[in-house]
């Protein structure tokens, strides 16, 4: 089984993807871990695409991948079986991303091993350019339009789209899997 969990930042993609990978007994691949380097430097261009391609090839029998990263769609959706879209309400997603960011900043949690990248109150609330909360606020509607269109696109006919609208639906979905 090959699955891509998508949704707006703060929707719970990583948490759900880890749970799903454990349930399906396949590797969990975190796209942010592939992208972010030390000092909040992103991996750009072909190097990022190569990292994604290699991670998927290493887990050829099956995987659960979390993340949107539109430029990787041709790679990750080529063989994907399911795209699970966490489409929670705006205020629910805003609450989740704010709570998560504050908790990480308070605990000084390193987000990806050996990067030194940590959330901060300044970054979250006073630096629009680098704020995950601001990113959620500005990308929420755009992501909804994008995934609604992807579900209707005939080019994606090989993909089973699963749209989960609440944490309760997500829990029921996970519980329904063998």
TrEMBL record:
Entry-linked InterPro entries: Cytidylate_Kinase-2, P-loop_NTPase, Shikimate/glucono_kinase
GO molecular function list: kinase activity
Record protein name field: Adenylate kinase
UniProt KW keywords: Kinase, Transferase
Pfam families: SKI
């Amino acid at each position: 089984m090959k699955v891509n969990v998508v949704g707006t930042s703060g929707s719970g993609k990583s948490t759900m993807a880890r749970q799903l990978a454990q349930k399906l007994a396949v590797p969990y691949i975190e796209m942010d871990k592939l992208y972010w380097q030390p000092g909040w430097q992103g991996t750009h261009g072909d190097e990022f695409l190569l990292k994604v391609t290699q991670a998927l090839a290493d887990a050829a029998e099956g995987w659960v991948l979390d993340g949107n990263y539109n430029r990787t769609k041709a790679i990750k959706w080529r063989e994907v079986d399911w795209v699970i879209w966490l489409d929670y309400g705006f205020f629910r997603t805003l609450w989740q991303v704010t709570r998560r960011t504050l908790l990480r900043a308070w605990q000084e949690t390193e987000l990806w091993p050996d990067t030194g990248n940590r959330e901060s109150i300044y970054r979250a609330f006073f630096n629009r350019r680098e704020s995950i909360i601001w990113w959620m606020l500005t990308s929420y509607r755009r992501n909804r339009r994008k995934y609604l269109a992807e579900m209707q696109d005939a080019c994606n006919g090989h993909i089973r789209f699963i749209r989960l609208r609440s944490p309760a639906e997500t829990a029921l979905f996970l519980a329904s899997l063998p």
